Amino acid sequence: MTWSELQMDRMLKNFFKPKLIIGFFVLSLSQALLANEFVITDIVVDGTERIGFETVNTYLPVSIGDSLTSEKESESLRALYKTGFFNDIALYRGDNNELIIQVTERPSIAQIDVKGNKLIKTDDLMEALKSLGISQGKIYNAIEMDRVNIDLKRQYHNQGYYAAAIKIEAIELPRNRVELKITVDEGQPASIERITLVGNATYPDERLKALFLLSESVLIGNGDKYARPKLQSDLETLRSFYMDRGFAEFTINSSQVSLSSDKTKVFISASLTEGPQYRLDSIKFSGTTQLTEEQLFELAKLESGDLFSRSDVIAAITAIRDRLSEEGYAFAEVEPRTQMDPKAQLVDLEFYIQPKSRVYVRKIEVEGNTRTRDYVLRREMRQQESAPYSLAAVRQSTTRLNRLGYFSKVNIDTRRVSEDEVDLVIVVEEQPTGSFTAGVGYSQLDGVSFNLGISEKNFLGTGNELNLSMNSSASMKSADIGYTNPYFTDDGVSLGTGFYYSEIDASELNITDYTLDKVGFRVNVGYPTSEETRLNFGLKAESQSLRCLTAFDACEQHLAEFDEDNQYLLFTTGWRYDSRNSFYFPSKGHTTNLSAQAVVPGTSDMTFYKVFAEEKWYYPLSDNFSFKLSGGVSYGAGYGEIEKLPFYERFYAGGIGSVRGFDPNSLGGYYEDINRPRGGDARVLTSTEVVFPMPLIEDSSNLRLSLFFDAGNIFETLEDVETSEFRSATGLAFAWITPVGPLAFSFSKPVHYKKDDKLQSFQFSLGVPF
User: Fold this and answer.
1) 755 occurs within a structural domain
2) What is the full DSSP assignment across 488-529?
3) Strand pairing of 265-273 and 191-198?
4) Which residue among 41, 179, 348, 678 is least crowded, i.e. fewest CB within 10 A of its CB?
């Protein structure tokens, strides 16, 4: 034995010798006090403050009436010490053969105070302590504090803070309690000084390091902050990179992380073995395929001579399984089997297919809908109960539910109940489906104004839509109420009705003198022609009264041709295609809207028509970013005795919903005699947006930001449309689904405009779909 080993042996002996003596003394004292075996007549616990007799008694291996032997005594001591409740325990024999248990309780934790932590939130640290059994009211055990210290340091180490120091103090309080003071010195995070790759011959270091989330310092400055999860992700990215390029035997032999002496620099090294690069030779399908070989090759999209790619193989497996699930084989298994020829560097690939049993849907359940009624969700399902399971039908059902706009999240879970049966569970999170607006305003021209609006897409959870709006000011009074049942018939024919009334007194605005009163009734019917398309037809019966109070050119010219009072029928029709994957914030799909309206000939001398065409495309750029492109053309004209639209039926643009950055309805020029927007018979609008979630917010499912570019204008006729006359603006938009409806803000900077245009940088709207 060496000198250092002798020193260590002596230290250990000196350390344990007093504890052995004390333990022997306590045991001898207990045995001396208990003397001989006796029958317990009663059990008395002395020294407890918080822990009741019943709690102690549950841990004792003896009870009243038992004989207390030396073995039972030792077992009792072990059981009570094991609870962790006590610092000291002694057993005594009372005068009347009572078993007296003398204990000294460990203190309880009265309070935990954490200071100095910035990287990890206090709530998260408290949760970590709670998982270790350290929380307010728990028993304090000084020995456990070393374990707590190590665990808290580990959490900082995982995020690259290797210099972090944790200090835990226990301050004694009255009534056998302690306050834990945990002081954190996070120190400086360790940055990556160098990443070394060993064994890569095909690809240079720069090419491989460019794939990593972590990066090393370059000449001046520090590299990325080291985090273990990022390193693991980078190593998996490296593995995928090679295995998708034919290196089927690629391995990462080892990875090492070392620290500088001050624990602020990290050095990472990874040893690789590339192996040979393989190509596909033969591709076969075996087992019970259910599909033709031609179908399987079309699904797999693999050819002999291709580089062997793990991602392509996984994609082929997924495509085959999905296709089999459409035939009812929901739990089909597809196993890839490879035979490698290292000399020829070729791979024979075989897909072994086991469809298993055909699966049927036993029942469909709905969870999470506290407001929307079950039948509203069930009628959108294209996967039916008691029918063979179809993945395509389930996906289509999910898309239809998302397009309703009633839910922020929709998932359809498949739960297996037997070998050939599954249950489908529709799990939804409801979101606000209505908007409410109410306001009071005042202006020098219009005086006091009031407005009230209610729009509900899911009225009383029935899936029916209700709209009600009322406005009142010195210049205008209006009311509109509409109700639509999207499933008036079981096969999806919709029926909508509504009444509307308005009074406009332009003289109160001190800019012109005319009044226009309207009252009408409308009805419309919709027919689904496919999963994504729908036809609509409607009819309005309207009565209007236009009066010029003083000279106003546009109004007087109109009344020179037509009576002040007019009644007519307005026919409407439209066709809609919708393949969006969501109502408010779609990330893929597109919509097409073609519609027209016209005064029915013979019902009025004032005959006109309007046509609308609108297209919106949504493309996913990544998991979080999507691209939106939209365009629309609107045109109207008279027929019969008139050539142009009535002046009050013209199109307007500017503001949210058209060209942001310009005053609402301000584009297209102004009447010279009254300096009011005159609108036009043609409108062209375009917009591009990059849409992404709100950063730094954990759940931003109801929030979106977008960078946009809007362009468009109002023209007299379609022949006058010139792109050089487009007004345009770019900016940042914010969209939020609030409890009272959609809220949109935009901050714009005009790009192409003229000095006479009226600009407006900040704009907002509430209750308008995005």
Assistant:
1) yes
2) SSTT--EEEEEEEEEEEEGGGGTS--EEEEEEEEEEEEEEE-
3) parallel
4) 41
The residue among 45, 76, 105 that closes a domain is 105
Measured CA to CA, the distance from residue 328 to residue 357 in angstroms comes to: 8
Q: Are residues 481 and 602 in the same domain?
A: yes
Listed in sequence order, the residues at least 6 apart from 174 whose beta carbon sits closer than 8 Å to its beta carbon are none
Q: Contacts from 40-43 at CB under 8 Å and sequence distance 24+? A: 40/64, 40/65, 40/66, 40/67, 40/68, 40/97, 40/98, 40/99, 41/96, 41/97, 41/98, 42/94, 42/96, 42/98, 42/99, 43/98, 43/99, 43/101
Statement to judge: residues 607 and 595 lie in one domain: yes
pLDDT recorded at residue 6? 36
Which range marks the domain in which residue 726 is found?
650-671+687-713+721-770
Give the pLDDT of residue 27: 45
- Confirm whether 196 is domain-assigned: yes
Inter-CA distances, 372 with 403, 460, 462, Å: 15, 7, 6
Cβ(565)–Cβ(538) below 8 Å = no
- pTM for the whole structure: 0.55
Q: What is the CATH number of the domain that holds 55?
A: 3.10.20.310
* Claim to verify: residue 605 and residue 494 sit in the same structural domain: yes
Nearest to 610 by CA among 578, 660, 561, 648: 648
pLDDT of residue 471: 77
Cα–Cα distance, 521 to 532 (Å, whole number): 29
Q: Which amino acid is at 335?
A: E
Torsion angles phi and psi, residue 561, rounded to 5: -100, -25
Between helix 122-131 and helix 144-157 the angle, nearest 10°, is: 130
pLDDT of residue 48: 83
Co-location of 640 and 520 in the same domain: yes
Residue 259 pLDDT: 85
Q: Which residues of the chain have a pLDDT value below 70?
A: 1-36, 217-223, 435-449, 451, 475, 506-514, 550-552, 674, 698-699, 739-742, 766-770
Integer Cα distance of 693 and 622 in angstroms: 12
What pLDDT does residue 641 have? Answer: 80
Give 623's contacts (C-beta < 8 A, 6+ positions apart).
none
- Burial profile 113-129: b = 16 or more Cβ within 10 angstroms, e = fewer: ebeebeebeeeebbebb
**3-state SS class at 431:** coil
396: part of which helix (H) or strand (E)? helix 391-403
Three-state secondary structure call for residue 385:
coil
Phi-psi region of 588 (alpha: psi -120 to 50; beta: other; left: phi over 0): beta
CATH code where residue 496 lies: 2.40.160.50
> Does 609 map to a domain?
yes
Q: Are residues 314 and 170 in the same domain?
A: no
Q: For the chain, how far is it from start to end, CA to CA, in angstroms?
A: 82
Q: Give me the pLDDT at residue 534, please.
A: 92
Reading the block at residue 571, the tokens are 């026919």
Structure tokens at 632: 């629309």
For residue 606, how many other CB atoms are within 10 A of its CB?
20
Residue 498 counted as domain residue: yes
Together in a domain, 94 and 181: no
Contact 596, 610 (CB under 8 A): yes
**Is 573 found in the same domain as 444?**
yes
Residues 700 and 642 in one domain: no
**Number of structural domains, the chain?**
7
